[in-house]
Amino acid sequence: MTPASDFLIGVDGGGTKTLAFIAPLDDDSNTVVLGRGSAGPGNPRAAGFDIAQTNIELAIDAAFAAAKLPRSTAAAACFCLAGAGREVEQQRIAAWAQEQQIARAVRVTGDAEPILAAVSPDNTGIALICGTGSMAWGRNASGKTARCGGWGYLLGDEGSAYWIARAGLAAAVRAADGRGAMTALLPHFQKELQAGAPHDLVDRVYSTQMSRERLAGLAHIVFDSAARDATAYKIIADAALELAATVDVLRRQLDLTANNYILALAGSVILNEPLLRELVLQQMENCSPRLVESVIEPVRGAIALARPLAKIA
């Protein structure tokens, strides 16, 4: 590969897909994209390192092709990957990237930091992620970082799609038993899962076909019912309370004052469900951010994080 010094590579790797951007080195606004590419999952822990690395390369190759550029070594690259929040994963991916001559300078981070970097010029504030899972990550002006949540679906992920769907199913079966209030969630889950009777939900939910992602996808039933069903609404309100709490924990840990920090939102649930987003912000009235930004393409933050690397490479 021929070395190059006039472009950057940013990669956002998640549990289902990997996105790669090729961007010019001289665009400090981080708005110009020369090429975009995508591939399968880039989470090294969930997909395995070999599969994740293969998909990262495929996404980069596709981005070069879209940019109509030959594959060559970038000035710098930042890989922002779910499942790479620890130093052991970061070192392994960075060593591989350098062996592949992807870039002269390489940085590997978890998937939260680029969300903040995408909207905060100095990369300070708090990023709140709420999709299949949930977590928050923050950084203050002195460089101190902290995170809250992100313990996975068995230990946490409060407020996430999985958490909401599971709470909805639990409320439905309590209603079937007579242990809880009657709720429209019960017939709606039965219909969605083609369960003729409430007890048929057991076979559907515990089926080997019911992946974590598929169960999380059932959260839409709770959201669709919230306007007319008190039980569904309370689940969403409880989710908002949990998410707001993660942000406030970080705000206090990082000494970020109310009305003087950026809150970056990312993830399919917080971005696509206005009720949840509104309730989260309501819960934060006493510690509200100065600015709330939605981040649709976290990979732009990966480019922003790669840019200073090129200056010291």
Q: What's the rounded overall pLDDT mean?
A: 91
Task: Estimate what percentage of residues fall within beta strands.
Answer: 15-25%
Principal-axis shape: globular
Structural class: alpha/beta
Tally of separate domains: 2
The count of β-strands is 10
Physical arrangement of strands within the biggest beta sheet: 3-2-1-4-5
Order of helices and strands: EEEHHEHEHEEEHHHHHHEHHEH
- Give the radius of gyration: 21 Å
Examine the secondary-structure arrangement and name the CATH architecture of the largest domain: 2-Layer Sandwich
Q: Any idea of the CATH class of the largest domain? A: Alpha Beta
What does this structure look like?
The protein has 313 residues and is an alpha/beta fold. It has two domains: 7-111 and 298-312, 2-Layer Sandwich (Nucleotidyltransferase, domain 5); 161-294, Nucleotidyltransferase, domain 5, CATH 3.30.420.40. The protein has 13 helices and ten strands. It has helices spanning 44-47, 49-67, 87-99, 113-117, 161-177, 185-192, 200-205, 212-216, 219-225, 230-253, 268-272, 274-283, 299-312; strands spanning 7-13, 18-24, 35-39, 74-81, 103-109, 125-130, 134-139, 145-149, 262-266, 291-294. Strands 3-2-1-4-5 form a five-stranded mixed sheet. Strands 8-7-6-9-10 form a five-stranded mixed sheet. A hairpin with a 3-residue loop joins strand 6 (125-130) and strand 7 (134-139). Helix 5 (161-177) crosses helix 6, helix 5 crosses helix 9 and helix 5 runs antiparallel to helix 10. The longest helix is centred in the last third of the chain and has 24 residues, at 230-253. The protein is globular. 48% of the residues are buried.
